[in-house]
Amino acid sequence: MSYARFPYYKQAGWESSAADNVPYLTLTVAFATLVFLVEIYLDHRQMRKFNPKHAQIPERLREVVQAEIFEKSLAYRREAFAFKLYESSFAFATSVLMLLLGYLPWAWDQAAKASRSIVVWVLGYGDLSSWSDYYTECLVTYIFIMIFMLTDTLLTLPFSLYSTFVIEQRHGFNKSTLLLYAQDKLTVLCLSLALSGPILSAVIFLVRWGGDLFYVYVWLFLLCVSILMMTLYPVLIAPLFNKYTPLPPGPTRDAVHALAEQLHFPLTALYSVDGSRRSAHSNAYFFGLPLLGQRIVLYDTLLTQVQNPLHALLHIIQDPLMMSRVVDSSLSFPSSPPPS
Question: What is the CA 281 to chain-centroid distance, rounded?
Fold first, then answer.
């Protein structure tokens, strides 16, 4: 790979790392390719599990699982998984292409140009030098994130549409409409842009203020944000997409509360959600922090498909959520300070 040729777009003052005998771009592309090939190999191994020649109903389930339903499930899994392979291949190709073309530095330069226009023409300042460096960096970063998110949305939209309105529809799972789909996408995009502004501003402030230990403060801040969002999302954001109603009194409610008491699970509320608006898939989950009480949500499709959906509490018996959050956060913590 020629260092002078790639990346195609180069920012002002860019110098190739070849002078230091460290081909970062080549190493990055090579590592990404290696990871992709390993994942593709594992995915193809998994695909064989959906072949009727290899997949059989377990002996203990043959009395409760119909052969016809099992075959339909395999057909759905095969098609969905094969489509996932195409999608991941496209994502890998576009990622490598963006690296070689220099998409990220190009997007940053476009964000810087846009921010100059906003400062001069919208806010009425003479130029960027008349404005705070901190506010300038926040504005450029925010516009950069907007460009990146819009690009990612456009690239993934065809795959999302095909998955929802072709594969899911063909197998009888899709219940959504184009209008509801567009509404969901627009809502997610607006929420992402609205939430990213304050978070990015805080991260930039911590980087500027934190000195040599800035990465510690950023890590702690993002950990707190992650826990806060994990708690607030089901309460404030999820209701924007679905309707949550308390599960009415009956055998299911009584059985779930009895099992929660038996397991010493701090159940404070039990809800049903109208998941059938978008999909015929069934699901159940819980949310909330153990010390503040936790809530269980059952999809309405689950309530109509089975009489006693107590498997919802299987998500809680081992309670891996908080432990996985701690592990993920510890892995995201740098093992050593960044080079000065």
Answer: 19
Six-digit token string for 121: 């023409």
pLDDT tens sequence across 187-227 = 999 999 899 989 999 999 999 999 899 999 999 999 999 88
Q: Please state, in angstroms and rounded to a whole number, the distance separating the CA atoms of residues 203 and 195.
A: 13
Rounded distance between C-alpha atoms, residue 200 and residue 202, angstroms: 5
Structure-block tokens of residue 304:
């109509």
Hunting for tokens 């954001």 — which residue is that? Answer: 237
Q: Parse the chain into domains and list their residue ranges.
A: 1-101, 104-209, 244-324
Residues 217, 206: contact at Cβ < 8 Å? yes
Q: What's the token pair of residue 44? A: 């193809």
Claim: this prediction has a pTM higher than 0.90? no
- What tens digit of pLDDT does each residue of 100-142 get? 999 999 999 999 999 888 877 766 665 555 567 888 889 999 9
- In this structure, whether the domain defined by 244-324 belongs to CATH 3.30.2010.10 is answered with yes
Strand 284-287 relative to strand 244-246, pairing: unpaired
**Side-chain-facing half-sphere of 192: CA atoms under 13 Å:** 15
